[in-house]
Please model this.
Amino acid sequence: MSALTAAVHESALGATTPLRMGRVTEILGLHLLVTGLKAAVGDLVEIDAASPVLAEVGASSADGLVCLPLGPTTGLTAGALVRHTGGPLRIHVGEELRGRVLDGLGRPIDGGPSLDHLPLVSVDHATPGPLSRPRIDTQVGLGVRALDSLTPCGRGQRIGIMAGSGVGKSSLLSMIARGTDAEVCVLALVGERGREVREFIEADLGPEGLARSVVVVATSDAPPVERLRAAFVATRIAESFRDAGRDVVLMMDSLTRVAMAQREIGLSAGEPPATRGYPPSVFALLPRLLERAGTSPAGSITGLYTVLVEGDDMQDPIGDTARSILDGHVVLSRRLATSGHFPSIDVLESISRLTTAVTTPAQRGAATRLRRMLAAHRDVRELVEIGAYVRGADADADAALSLMPRINAFLRQDMDDVTDTDHTWQQLHELVGG
Model:
């Protein structure tokens, strides 16, 4: 039999193979029970309805498949037919994604041209092996003076931005998107208010920032599976640029809402609640997501993840877990925000674990000098306010009191003020006299 005849024969057999369908037997909360269909965990199935609904297989048992809907379940009924789509969620990747806005499943929502001609890849991707990752030894400029000087970030580092609500997390991300010297930015807006998405893209990010960015959006009213998948879709897009040799900045706002989406899914599937109602799967999910960023032999992904801490409690379980995985954290202060100090970065509470690897001794010396002055000023502030501090008691405090107007001017920055890294270090050396 010739190769052509064999191919025709195989095609004919495939065409005559019956399409196997399953049925929905139960609809409960956030999951559907499907029987009569064979599929692997992570595969997508399509439920027949007036508007077909995609669902992801979340678990498998003797009773059937537990599927998690990726859309509204209104109108679905027990007995609805279900078909297998052929595999897990796949998304389009490529250079033409830059400047585009996608939903949590990687589909364009900006009215732009179709992406169907771009290659499709699975959302799942192997994490680089620990010994194959190049060491981080180069600073990536973020365009924010308080970060670039006192919490320097390496190319391929992962940092958490810890803050309560309304203290400027999204504004800080938009400054970084416009000011970073990375080639590509990928932004994941997970659980955001629908009203704020267009405002963030047009006003905060702006045309210049959007031109080199890919924005993935899953608003707060999206199904929890879509909100969860948005984080992995954004990460996979960043990985595709990294695999092509690019240096990427991946920004996710917020990691907490990703964890909340997994909490909804886990509790609905019958997991027991643990710390503050978060089931065990949440704490297994976080390292699986966060470890995918970083360096690889081809390129790098610098990850910036906002963490919405409850009631400004920095010991929040998601924040505490994120700090243990990430390579540093930046704390935003409500006290600074309410006093008009933006960006509201509490530099004394912010730490980069790679400062030594990405800065020179002279740079570290200048940063340490400024930190010492800020710490001394914090210690004597109340004494100064009541007139009980005597100059000469602490040299660092005296220097801080003299330089505080200039220090505040250095740490404050308008959203449209982008400062390159070299200029930031020059200003810091001039400020501390180093």
Observations:
- The first helix runs from residue 3 to 16.
- The first strand starts at residue 21 and ends at 28.
- Residues 12-16 have pLDDT under 50 and may be disordered.
